[in-house]
Amino acid sequence: MQERLSDYRARRDPALTPEPASDDPRGTGVDGRAFVVQEHHASSLHWDLRLEHEGVLVSWAVPKGLPAAPGVERLAVHTEDHPLAYARFAGTIPEDEHGGGWMRITDVGPLEVARWTADEVELTLHGAVLQGRHRLRRRPDGGHDHWTLTRLDPPTDPDHEAVPDAVAPMLAEHGDPPTGDGWTYEVKWDGHRALARVVGGRLALSSRGGHDVTASVPGIAGLGEALAGRDALLDGELVVLGPDGRPDFGLLQQRMGAPRARGPRVTYLVFDVLHLDGRSWLHRPHAERRGQLDSLALAGPVWATPPALPGRAEDVLAAVRAQGLEGVVAKLGSSAYTPGRRSDAWRKLVNLHKADVVVGGWQPGAGRRAGMVGSLLLGVLEQGGLRYVGHVGTGFTDRELVRLGTQLKTLSRTSSPFSGAVPAARARTARWVEPELAAEVAMAGWTGDGLLRQARWRGLVDGG
């Protein structure tokens, strides 16, 4: 045994590391033959699988964790043998020592071995978490160190579900402040929606459109490690906080385009749990999902869980308005998560401002609005002329659309009335009009380049 532990001893200074000495006589602490799995946050996160054999713990590092389903193969890198007492070790290894970082035990228990050769091990685990038959097999092209770990039994939990590759985010509707009980409120952040998928401690962020945006948030991999081996799918928003502490959408756009440039960092704000520990949470009520999220206590350098805000809608809106924030999202506690759909169970309540604008053009509608106005192109009068400030396509009644269509046709012109450029995507299909119709829109505010944010039609003014 001493010879088998020579590598272990050579790599460690017992005066510097709290790891057990190679001659510790106390053993594994498990009756009979033992196994242990340790979550190891070293230079890279991995899980150490150690199996008692011939007086030592034969060890493999498994970067993605032990497979939860049969047929899934995981890389297992064979490492040096460890003393039996290592089955009881948890703690922090000094950074400059071999394997420096912190380690915790995720499972330990009895082990049965059906086959053990130089190239293959078949075993059965009887742990509190891990149970069933597994096989370790040396890869023919991987040298001495590279093996494959495969689960042979179905999961002991027949209801286990793998984390889905993708879920379309649930969306909120614009609505009136709710009355009655059972609602909570969350700040409406001015950012980009993103889902975080965590499997085997590895995290990937995807946008609402399904694009991988992980690289846009340097440091976000730590959120996967913070979940301590729990597989999950989380919903949240990417934001950049400006110097005043409020979210800045313009800065976010810049940072998403150049994530490693100097400047304010992107932060991921988590507000929902969609999948956790082999269970879908989509059909569970929001109050239960929110409680589970809070229990995870997710807080780190570039991620956080903003608090839910109880109380009356008017009071919460007033408090958020006083902080200069955009608004809140009201969420009904009994509501399920409906992927890809807008739901009145989530309501956007925005602290809207008003703006006086002039109509300078319109775009034809499609679908239900075919043959009618789809959106209006808006400007504000300044000394240099009519400056384009954006478009509005919501807030109209059918009657208003018919009326506007008639008025706009009488004001038709062949050239743009705006003093500056209109975005090409808008100008390409625009129908220009004389700038004679004054109107009022509600909006969430102005962007950094002077455009309306989330404009909503309120109506014509001055007799228009």
Automatic annotation (TrEMBL):
<feature type="region of interest" description="Disordered">
    <location>
        <begin position="1"/>
        <end position="31"/>
    </location>
</feature>
<dbReference type="GO" id="GO:0016740">
    <property type="term" value="F:transferase activity"/>
</dbReference>
<keyword id="KW-0808">Transferase</keyword>
<dbReference type="Pfam" id="PF01068">
    <property type="entry name" value="DNA_ligase_A_M"/>
</dbReference>
<comment type="similarity">
    <text>Belongs to the ATP-dependent DNA ligase family.</text>
</comment>
<feature type="region of interest" description="Disordered">
    <location>
        <begin position="141"/>
        <end position="160"/>
    </location>
</feature>
<feature type="compositionally biased region" description="Basic and acidic residues">
    <location>
        <begin position="1"/>
        <end position="14"/>
    </location>
</feature>
<dbReference type="InterPro" id="IPR012309">
    <property type="entry name" value="DNA_ligase_ATP-dep_C"/>
</dbReference>
<keyword id="KW-0436">Ligase</keyword>
<dbReference type="InterPro" id="IPR012340">
    <property type="entry name" value="NA-bd_OB-fold"/>
</dbReference>
<dbReference type="GO" id="GO:0016874">
    <property type="term" value="F:ligase activity"/>
</dbReference>
<dbReference type="Pfam" id="PF13298">
    <property type="entry name" value="LigD_N"/>
</dbReference>
<protein>
    <recommendedName>
        <fullName>DNA ligase (ATP)</fullName>
        <ecNumber>6.5.1.1</ecNumber>
    </recommendedName>
</protein>
<dbReference type="Pfam" id="PF04679">
    <property type="entry name" value="DNA_ligase_A_C"/>
</dbReference>
<feature type="domain" description="ATP-dependent DNA ligase family profile">
    <location>
        <begin position="265"/>
        <end position="382"/>
    </location>
</feature>
<dbReference type="InterPro" id="IPR014144">
    <property type="entry name" value="LigD_PE_domain"/>
</dbReference>
<dbReference type="InterPro" id="IPR012310">
    <property type="entry name" value="DNA_ligase_ATP-dep_cent"/>
</dbReference>
<dbReference type="InterPro" id="IPR014146">
    <property type="entry name" value="LigD_ligase_dom"/>
</dbReference>
<dbReference type="InterPro" id="IPR050191">
    <property type="entry name" value="ATP-dep_DNA_ligase"/>
</dbReference>
